[in-house]
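Design a sequence for this backbone.
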């Protein structure tokens, strides 16, 4: 095995382009703490480097940019009696997310294939965000009794209408066209043109900006179906509580409303309530750091005080029985203010 094959992050320069490639293809490039530190170190080196004009983030393998964070390691820390250790991971990851959003040089991200959870934290805050016909983007944290993070609530809160609530609560996937409609991506480039685009970003001087270069490869995808679904989504997901959202879905005549209701009824009620509260709080925030701080409060509350996160990871990834026992068990058992405790939690140490 070569050093490049052994490294979980490939960092190199090609003329004026700094390249960061996630290199855990068998795990769909899932992020661990060491990978986050490698990415952060590369960005720090290039921040003021006179020869690096643009940074590209992509992933090795055909399956996707990044399937998310290493939640199995999170599970091991909590059940091993060290829940405080999760702060180290989240503080490092969120600092990286903020760095990408605020970076002084343009960062281009290829969200080709599966880009979920932590992958959204890498790609969603870049200056130029590229999707393809293979793209599958999601914030699926409610499936493990958790809540969207990595700045995902900032993006969800700015999606049209109530699409942010819909995707945040259900964990549904977006294709490339949906991601552009949602504000999670900027350009659609066919996957067979990505290599040519990489070369252009490194070596082509005209046009002068990465965004203009990407436009040379950009194509118009098939239209997203989301605008046509806005009527029933906005009507249902504008309700003030998860319970009332479920009631509106139950009474809707939209063909897809029943599927959305069925999805919600399988997920952790507390995670749904916390997510609804988080997306709406982020909608009123002024910047991504504020949103990340709100997310940090909530993820640390789950890690330190609520059993659903461990139970969700157990059911999905450890025992794989797909039969989690949520607390409370049903949406009907939720208090109206079920998201309040997570919102008010004060974690130690602080995020920033």
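Sequence:
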């Amino acid at each position: 095995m070569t050093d490049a094959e052994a490294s979980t992050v490939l960092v190199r320069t090609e003329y004026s382009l700094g390249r960061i490639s996630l290199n855990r293809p068998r795990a769909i490039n899932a992020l661990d703490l060491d990978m986050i530190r490698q990415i952060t170190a590369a960005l720090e080196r290039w921040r003021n480097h006179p020869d690096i004009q643009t940074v590209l983030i992509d992933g090795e393998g055909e399956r996707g940019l990044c399937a998310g964070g290493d939640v199995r390691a999170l599970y091991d820390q909590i059940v091993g009696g060290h829940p405080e250790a999760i702060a180290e991971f989240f503080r490092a990851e969120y600092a990286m997310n903020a760095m990408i959003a605020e970076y002084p040089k343009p960062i281009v991200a290829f969200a080709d294939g599966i880009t979920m959870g932590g992958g959204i934290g890498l790609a969603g805050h870049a200056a130029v965000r590229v999707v393809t016909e293979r793209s599958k983007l999601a914030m699926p944290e409610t499936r493990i009794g958790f809540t969207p993070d990595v700045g995902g609530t900032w993006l969800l809160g700015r999606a049209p209408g109530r699409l942010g609530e819909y995707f945040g609560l259900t964990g549904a996937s977006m294709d490339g066209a949906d991601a552009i409609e949602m504000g999670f991506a900027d350009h659609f480039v066919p996957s067979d043109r990505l290599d040519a685009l990489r070369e252009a970003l490194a070596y082509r001087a005209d046009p002068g900006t990465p965004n203009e270069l990407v436009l040379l490869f950009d194509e118009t995808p098939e239209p997203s179906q989301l605008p046509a679904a806005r009527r029933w989504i906005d009507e249902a997901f504008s309700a003030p509580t998860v319970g009332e959202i479920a009631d509106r879905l139950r009474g809707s005549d939209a063909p897809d409303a029943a599927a959305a209701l069925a999805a919600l009824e399988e997920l952790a009620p507390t995670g749904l309530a916390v997510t609804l509260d988080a997306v709406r709080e982020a909608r009123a925030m002024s910047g991504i750091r504020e949103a990340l701080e709100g997310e940090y409060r909530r993820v640390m509350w789950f890690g330190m005080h609520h059993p659903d996160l461990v139970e969700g990871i157990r059911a999905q990834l450890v025992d794989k029985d797909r039969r989690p026992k949520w607390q409370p068990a049903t949406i009907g058992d939720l208090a109206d203010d079920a998201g309040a405790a997570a919102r008010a939690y004060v974690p130690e140490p602080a995020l920033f």
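The chain has two domains: 1-138+176-223, 228-352.
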